[in-house]
Amino acid sequence: MTDLKRRRFLKTAGIAGTAAAASTLAAPAIAQGSPEIRWRLTASWPKSLDTLYGGAENFAKYVSEATDGKFQIQSFAGGEIVPPLQATDAVINGTVEMCHTAQYYMWGKDPTWALGCAVPFGLNGRQQAAWWYEGGGEQLLNAFHAKSNVYSLLCGNTNAQMGGWFRKELNTLDDMKGVKMRIGGFAGAVMSKLGVIPQQIGGGDIYPALEKGTIDGAEWVGPYDDEKLGFYKVAKYYYYPGWWEGGAMLSLHVNKPKWDSLPKHYQAICKAAAAYANSVMSGRYEIQNPAAVKRLVAAGVQLRPFSEAILDACFKSANEVYAEISAKNEDFKKIWESMKAFRAESYLWQQLPDNTYDTYMMIQQRKNTL
Amino acid sequence: MTDLKRRRFLKTAGIAGTAAAASTLAAPAIAQGSPEIRWRLTASWPKSLDTLYGGAENFAKYVSEATDGKFQIQSFAGGEIVPPLQATDAVINGTVEMCHTAQYYMWGKDPTWALGCAVPFGLNGRQQAAWWYEGGGEQLLNAFHAKSNVYSLLCGNTNAQMGGWFRKELNTLDDMKGVKMRIGGFAGAVMSKLGVIPQQIGGGDIYPALEKGTIDGAEWVGPYDDEKLGFYKVAKYYYYPGWWEGGAMLSLHVNKPKWDSLPKHYQAICKAAAAYANSVMSGRYEIQNPAAVKRLVAAGVQLRPFSEAILDACFKSANEVYAEISAKNEDFKKIWESMKAFRAESYLWQQLPDNTYDTYMMIQQRKNTL
Questions:
Q1: I need a labelling partner for A45 at 20 to 30 A (CA). Which of A156, B145, B276, B310 fits?
Q2: Under an 8 A CB cutoff, do B362 and A355 touch?
Q3: Which class does domain B34-157+247-286 fall in?
Q4: Residues A57, A290, A123, CA angle at the centre, nearest 5°?
Q5: What ipTM does this complex have?
Q6: Domain ranges for chain A
């Protein structure tokens, strides 16, 4: 047998072997090889928000590196292909293969989506990751998303957000009445029970609305992102905490038939790359927010905590909204009950070593001994 | 041109194209292909600790899945190849390609290693991940590890640990004097300044020592892991927080020449898989610890916080040890100063939305309204 003939024989034998394996194992990944794939990702963020947009970019970079450049995902900022809030729709209808977004932008279609991002008095960022990876969250949310032909991956977290920028102080519950605030979805519904008038305004339009006084307040994310949008120039009271986002998960949504068509090892790479990008985004916020909050305070920003009375009223109002939605939405009820059960367990546990450790360290920070 | 000829022509053209690319780009990963690789990993844990050992197993699983089974890493429990505390030595001397361990086990060789796991009054788990991924930690630690021919990856975190099990209450600083406690490394050095007599005892030997009264106390991890070792049966006071482990990073150590020999895309897969396994381990602790602490309390365990006076004395003592080591160890000083600067910044920031949100939620947990 010549060398060339031998090579052809081995190749044929190899193909035959693979075919035999395929007949006993359902679609083995090995039979699929490592194809060249090009996808497009539409993000809900402008490129200037390097924290959020970086989540999409890092994911794409890790996937490319892990596949030796064979699986390339090109990221587009919100508005380049479709508007920021229509990212998931573009995935569902197949305009793009995937997007990077906040699930609560889908609140209007079904409030269940909001559970995959942030809900009032929900889980904090650490709890959200635990619930997603080990608490059944990934499976519960994906069972719901499959109904829309979406496969989702956790990819980023802001951790607890600030409560937003206001042109005047909010000392009492009465001060909330009639306040026109840029706040959306679930939190807007809760706020409206307190007399706040929620306004839906895209990120880029908030600053002029605050400046002109068309609105009295606006929430966005936290110091590092908010500083870029300039709110501190026109509304100096910066409230905390954003009780509607004790943590906020960001997500990759993939068109499900497209996801199902990927070789199994590309799916595995996507899962690992999403987890990596998830941790890097949290880290970037953690590193960038302290410096940003110091710059804002130096620029005259006044930090204000929401009073316990205001938080209590919001908590009560939120529980009413949870009950109302749960009474008429089985998907929401099922997933919220899983989160809620874990929330109670976890906040018992976090009072022990975590909270006592952090409290002691915060006392030292205030004493300037760190 | 026949079909067969055309295919041969395309194939040749493809190879020529790759060779041309290779001459302009330094050692492109594509030239390395996807070889079959078999490695061994020795862990510092028994298989019964599914949290810690699960970190190694999940990493290996994700790598296998992402390489379509081509890169296989077989995990061994502590003691199967080398004893638990000699895992890193086995990597350095090439007995195994990699290990999964806690870097502070290398404290005796150089205290700088401890910074890659946990140090008294150091960063909490969330801060550790941020410092590693976005705060320069990965680069600083790897520059140090390279001196020992080790490449390291963050792969797991316990978050804040408990302060350990004691046969009697520790109400005052005087109660600490003469207490024989199983506690190692850095924390042991800090404790000894308070009159505690630190004991080095392997995990499996703690229970009989506590039972016989050879020691008065012992620290391990937290409720879920500690419960498995049965300490609650022989020492009923369970203290918190473990101020020497406000977070504890677990690491993968790879023999550096072996790491450098991997195709670039296998390295990328290892990095993403480690980040994935890192998040899953934290999640598993978060899910499992609440139920474990409830079982322990039901079994008669008495939870006790360390008093602020005891914590203050430990903090002072720890700062003395930091100064002593920094005065004679440049590597330690450089890395600790990076962590320390971030610690002060981050504990300023975490007092705002994160701490106020969590505090409000913990109040609700105590009111039983969650």
A1: B276
A2: yes
A3: alpha beta
A4: 70
A5: 0.91
A6: 34-157+247-286
